[in-house]
Amino acid sequence: MNPEGQILVLNAGSSSLKLGLFDATDEEQLAERQMSWDVDAVPGYQTALHHVLAGLDTSRIAAVGHRVVHGGTRFTTGVVIDVAVRAEIAELTTLAPLHNGPALAVADEVARLFPGVPQVAVFDTAFHTTLPPHAYLYALPYEWHERWGVRRFGFHGLSHAYSAGRAAEILGRPLEELKVVTCHLGSGCSLAAIERGQSIATTMGFTPLDGLMMATRPGSVDPGLLTYLLAENRMTVAELEEALYHESGLKGVSGQAGDMREILSARARGDARAGIAFDLYVARLREGIGAMAAALGGLDALVFTGGVGEHAPAVRAGACDALVWIGLTLDDAVNATAAPDAVVSSPDSAIRVIVLHTREELMVARESVRVLGTP
Question: What is the dihedral of CA 192, 197, 198, 199, to 10 degrees?
Fold first, then answer.
């Protein structure tokens, strides 16, 4: 890879396509763009890519890095995308249909636009390969794990890894000394318990449906409920999957959009279902933070990031107000107006609360350079 070139990073999320352009030598970010898209309209992926590339000087692009959500057990580090790798990522699409498919569609269009430019897949699941067996195994027949790879994978790894490292920088302490819970709250939501820089517990599981309540996904539900719906022919498998990925979470409970900004606005107007949706979201978040802190056996810092984590003070306050008993107190005035990156806990709080702007694209650029190396 030309060391004087640039790294184009494409992050195909569940609700948007993000672009970052970085200098391959010093990691300077040269461009940042984003476009929302319709995840049900595959042709829209190519349209979104052309939109974010419009007017951008692409003459020095030496490599393209992609955030890929699900790497299964096969991919534990970044890898150059070739025919075999593409096929394996495609096989995992059923486990992350909102993410892996769009990422591949974007990669295919990149191959057409920039023939010969190497592409690197960087996986969200890779950060969680440090999970111990008691954190990644389910209480299911062990043969399922051995035969079919059934286990907790965890996601948002790029964001969790960056957030923990950035929190250590802000606190002026070595990451290896810290116990940190990172809260990635966007369209998808997950928590991670990070000890000495390694993930030891997380909320998402075999797929990105598990864990916290999200914009359109429910998070953890009783599996017996799902088998009941199928056994009683209340829903087909396809209808159930559609409901779980697109019609649940904030959207399903509120009857409105899954956007937290709209939920907060409707709640302020007195909309009862929006209020219930908010309360349920915050309750699940509190429970998750408590579980992650218990896994760590203590807590030095609590980090909020992602669109909701960065921009919804009410969510942060709702989660933190229930944690006063462990010595965590917010500075309400600072929290209400904070812009990333900022400490929003009170000076006497035993636990630091930090609001961060996550930089998944930077993490992809770094890993792409590591994978490809330089002459």
Answer: 0
| Residue range 250-292, pLDDT digits in tens | 999 999 989 999 999 999 999 999 999 999 999 999 999 999 9
Peptide bond between residue 40 and the one before it cis (omega within 30 degrees of 0): no
Tokens found for residue 92 = 């995992």
Distance in angstroms (rounded) separating the CA atoms of residues 304 and 312: 10
Which one from 23, 38, 82, 124 is the annotated catalytic residue? 124
Q: Is the pTM of this model over 0.85?
A: yes
Task: Write the pLDDT tens digit of every residue in 227-251.
Answer: 999 999 999 999 999 999 999 999 9
Closest by CA to 301, choosing from 190, 185, 193, 198, is 193
**Does the annotation count 124 as an active-site position?**
yes
Residue 42 CA to residue 92 CA, distance in Å, equals 17
Tokens of 247: 């019609």
Neighbours of 227 (CB within 10 A): 10
What are the strands of the beta sheet with 352-355, ordered from one edge?
198-202, 189-195, 179-185, 301-305, 352-355, 342-343
Neighbours of 135 (CB within 10 A): 17
